[in-house]
Amino acid sequence: MQTSFELRWHGRGGQGAVTAAIIVAEAAIFDGKNAQAFPEFGAERRGAPVKAYTRVSERQIFTRSPIIAPDMVVVLDTSIDKKIYFDGLKVGGTLLINSSKDRSELREKIERKDIMVAKVDATHIAMDELGAAIVNTAMVGALIKVVPLAKFDSVGEAIRENFKSKIAESNVKAAGRAYNEVEVLS
Amino acid sequence: METMEKSIWKRLPLSSNYAVAYAAKDSDVDEIAAYPITPQTTVVEKLSEFIANGELLAEMVHVESEHSAMSASIGASAAGARAFTATSSQGLELMHELLHIASGMRLPIVMSVSARALSAPLSIWGDYSDVMNTRDTSWITIIASSAQEVYDSIVQAYRIAESVMLPVMVAYDGFMMSHTYEPVFVSEKSDLFRNYIPRKDRVILDTRKPVTMGAVANPDWYYEAKYQQVKAMEEAYGASVEADQAFSKLYGRNYGLVEEYNVENSDLIILTYGGLFGTVKQAVDEMKENGVSVGAARVRLFRPFPLNELRMLLLKSKAFVVLDRSFSNGLPVSGPLAIELKSMMNSYNITVPVYSYIVGLGQRTVSEADISKITNQALAGKGVNESIYWGVRE
Questions:
Q1: What ipTM was estimated for this complex?
Q2: Nearest CB to B278 within list A39, A64, A66
Q3: Which of A40, A55, A62 to mutate to test the interface with B (most CBs of B within 10 A)?
Q4: Does residue B394 form part of some domain?
Q5: Are A8 and A74 in contact (CB under 8 A)?
Q6: pTM of the entire predicted model
Q7: How far is CA B32 from CA A77, A106, B28, B45, B82, in A?
Q8: Does residue B230 fall inside a structural domain?
Q9: Structural domain harbouring B48
Q10: Is B356 helix (H, G, I), strand (E, B) or coil?
Q11: Per the structure, how many domains does chain B have?
C-alpha cells in the first residue's frame, strides 16, 4: 500500500455509505494506522445520492478537506451518474462497483480504460445474508480484498462495534462473502 | 507517541463528539443537563449510553431548552456538582444570558460547543459564529483542532475552571470535527485523571452552611464583583499554561496556547483556529515543496487572549494572513481573530501587515488550493485595510 490512500464512497441514502467509510477507517485504526472518515455534509435522505470519504495513511493526516482526487471510488448503487463518481478519480485509480453484470459487459460499459475495475454483486450478497439491499458491509469486504487497507478481522471488529449482535454477525458474513467473490476485471 | 505508557491508554476511532463524551466520563462529571441540537447531539447520546451502562455515575437532567440546560448546570454547579453541558449554534444563543450568570457566579462549569453557523438563513453546518458571539461572556474559551485535543482539553478545562472559578468552553468544528472519525487515545482506567483534577472544597449552596449566590449588587458593589472576574480571567492565562504543562508531564501530550507549524524564517504566516489548521498545515507542506516560504499557526486559547505567545509569533514573519470562520458585521476588518490581533498589535506598536480573510462560513469548503491562492494574493500585498470575503459570489 502507498503511504496515503484516499477513498470516496458513492451510494444512496439508506445503503450505508457513511457507515462503510467509518468502518474502513475504524478497522485501519485498529490495525495501528492513521485514518479519517467523514460524510459529505449535506442532508441525508433515504434515496438521495450520498458521498463519504476515507483516508488511510502511515503518517499523521492533516487535511480535513473533501477528497477531490481519490485513489479509488466505491460505488454502492449503479444508478448514480458516472460523471459524479468518476469526478477526479486518478489515472491508474480503482473503481469498485456493486454490479450483477458479467465481466465483459461491465468492462465495455466503462469508458475509462486508464483505471482498474473491480466488481462484486453486493446486492445479491446482502439480500442473501441480511434479507435487505443494504450493501455497505459487503462493499467493505470486497474493498479490503482489492486494496488491503485493513485486516479482515479488524473489519469484523469494526462491524461489531457498529451493529447490534445478531445483525453484526450477518454483516460480517456478508463482508466475508464479498471478500471471496469480488472480481478484478482489469 | 513514545512518551506515553501504552497500558494507560486505548486507541479508539472516535469523532470529536464522542471524544467529548469520553472526556466528560473520564473527568467523573456528576451532572449533565443538555438539549439536543445538530451537530452536538451525539455527545449527549454517548453520555446517556455511558450512564445507562453504568460506566458513568452521573445525573442526566432532561431539559426543555438550552436556556434550561445552562440554568440546571448553574444550579448543579452551585450545589457542588461537577457540571457538564454541550451545545451548538442557536442553542448557545439561547443560553446567552445564562452564560453571563455562570461566569458572574464564578461557577466552574465545562461546556463543549460543536461550532455551527447561525440562522437566518438556516444552516446546520459548521462555522464559528456561535462561539464568537460569546466573546464578552467571561467564559474561558479553548478551540481545539483534533479529536485528541478535544478529549485532552475537556479534562484540562476542569483543572482550569476549578482553579480560577470561571466556566470553560471547549469549541471545535461542527461536522468537520464533530462527525469525523480519527484515532484518539482515551484512558484505559476510570480514575486516570483523579489526581490531575482532584475534588476541591469550594463555597457551595449548603443548608448547613447557608450562603446567598447571585444576589443583587447595588452600585457600590457591582463594579468590584465584575473586577474580580477580570482578575480571575487574568489568572486563567497562567492556569491554562499550568494545566497544559501538568498534563504533558503526567500524560505526555500538550498543545500550548498558540500552536506553530513551520514558522521559522517565513515570508508569511497563516493564523487560524479549529480544524481548519489541519488543512492549512497540509497546504503549507505543499507550498513549501514549491518554494513558497510560508508557515502556519493557530490560536488554541481564545479567552483569555494569548498575547505573549502572539507577540512572539509576530516577530517570526514579515506578514500574516488571518483566516476567520465568522465575522463582526459593520467593521472594515471583520474577522474576530483579526480584529483582536490588530487591537493587540496597536497596543504594542507592532506594525507588520495583517491580511484578514473570511472563509468557510456555513461550511463553504476551504481546500488546500484556496489556502494557496490566498497566500499568493497576500504575498502580493492586497487587502491590508479590510477583510476579504474569500470566494463569495457577489
A1: 0.94
A2: A64
A3: A62
A4: no
A5: yes
A6: 0.96
A7: 42, 55, 11, 12, 9
A8: yes
A9: 6-251
A10: strand
A11: 2
